[in-house]
């Protein structure tokens, strides 16, 4: 359950604009929520819908406990309609069904709200049908279109919506939210450095596969430090079996980059920026092996390896070359 106070912490501008809609009694007939996955678009749309339907609202704040608020939360409010992709796209038939629903009088009140998730995935026919719907808006109808890529939608649809840009979450915010969700502080710091998408961070944390990535990165560093002649053996027998897909390998290289960034942060006394907080002793040992300049060079090698993976160069060859570069 989200409140406007919480949403203002996550998306201050978007939340304030929607709150102003109630204070000024100027709710638009259509809104376009545009921003990356995990930036709070869905949560904001639910809260906005509750504020619209709640009969005990104070200012913009819904009571959060009445029948209307509870039914919005449970997804069972008869005057709130959700449309999500059916397979790979949102089809014309889904928009036609929505239009038919809106010809009926509201079940609970005169207001009706519809939320279209991944609106950029509407087919051309669905987009054109929705456009006709938007061209003849009812005073009692409010639409919220949620998208990660508003630029791919029809300009004529965009022009009929009030655009709200959802900004990426800052790392500190992601880290604190992860800790609130029960993620350990050390993992939260790493996850917040990998992505500013809270949803994605939680998915990564829940993935058993990722739990071993951190261990493998530390093991690789120890091999490079103490047994450099066994580096290629480690890559072929332990590293590559875990990173079977290119996307997984990219994730592993991302974590490896964080390690060498930590080495640089160690040299610069940026304690708050270090993400491998529980490997302090190993980090000090690494600083004896790699200078600040060589750590920066290692980051360049890893970036080049990531580019080669994207260019479909054979992963084993990429990792073998990178290993030789890192142990110089």
UniProtKB/TrEMBL annotation:
A Pfam family of this chain: DNA_pol3_delta2
Enzyme class: transferase
SUPFAM superfamilies: P-loop containing nucleoside triphosphate hydrolases
Domain of life from the UniProt record: Bacteria
Single GO MF annotation: 3'-5' exonuclease activity
Biological process according to GO: DNA-templated DNA replication
This protein's UniProt keywords: Nucleotidyltransferase, Transferase
Enzyme Commission numbers on file: 2.7.7.7
PANTHER family: DNA POLYMERASE III SUBUNIT DELTA, REPLICATION FACTOR C / DNA POLYMERASE III GAMMA-TAU SUBUNIT
Name of this protein: DNA polymerase III delta' subunit
Organism: Halobacillus halophilus (strain ATCC 35676 / DSM 2266 / JCM 20832 / KCTC 3685 / LMG 17431 / NBRC 102448 / NCIMB 2269)
């Amino acid at each position: 359950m989200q409140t406007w106070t919480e949403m203002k912490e996550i998306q201050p501008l978007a939340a304030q604009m929607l709150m102003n809609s109630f204070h000024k009694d100027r709710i638009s007939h259509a809104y376009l929520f545009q921003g990356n996955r995990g930036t709070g678009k869905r949560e904001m749309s639910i809260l906005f819908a509750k504020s619209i339907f709640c009969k005990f609202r104070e200012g913009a704040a819904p009571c959060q406990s009445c029948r209307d608020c509870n039914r919005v939360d449970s997804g069972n409010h008869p005057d709130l309609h959700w449309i999500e992709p059916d397979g790979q796209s949102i089809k014309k038939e889904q928009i036609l069904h929505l239009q038919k629903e809106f010809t009926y009088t509201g079940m609970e009140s005169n207001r009706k709200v519809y939320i279209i998730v991944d609106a950029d995935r509407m087919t051309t026919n669905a987009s054109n049908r929705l456009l006709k719907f938007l061209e003849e808006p009812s005073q009692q109808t409010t639409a919220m279109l949620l998208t990660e890529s508003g630029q791919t939608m029809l300009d004529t649809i965009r022009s009929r919506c009030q655009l709200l840009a959802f900004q990426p979450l800052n790392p500190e915010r992601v880290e604190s939210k992860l800790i609130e969700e029960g993620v350990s502080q050390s993992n939260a710091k790493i996850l917040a450095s990998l992505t500013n998408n809270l949803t994605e961070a939680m998915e990564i944390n829940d993935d058993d596969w990722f739990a071993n990535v951190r261990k493998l990165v530390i093991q690789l560093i120890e091999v490079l430090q103490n047994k450099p002649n066994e580096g290629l053996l480690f890559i072929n027998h332990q590293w590559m079996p875990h990173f079977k897909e290119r996307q997984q390998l990219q994730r592993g290289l991302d974590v490896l980059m964080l390690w060498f960034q930590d080495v640089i942060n160690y040299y610069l006394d940026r304690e708050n920026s270090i993400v491998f907080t529980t490997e302090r002793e190993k980090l000090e040992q690494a600083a004896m092996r790699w200078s600040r300049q060589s750590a920066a060079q290692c980051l360049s090698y890893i970036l080049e390896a990531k580019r080669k993976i994207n260019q479909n160069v054979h992963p084993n060859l990429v990792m073998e070359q990178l290993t030789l570069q890192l142990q110089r």
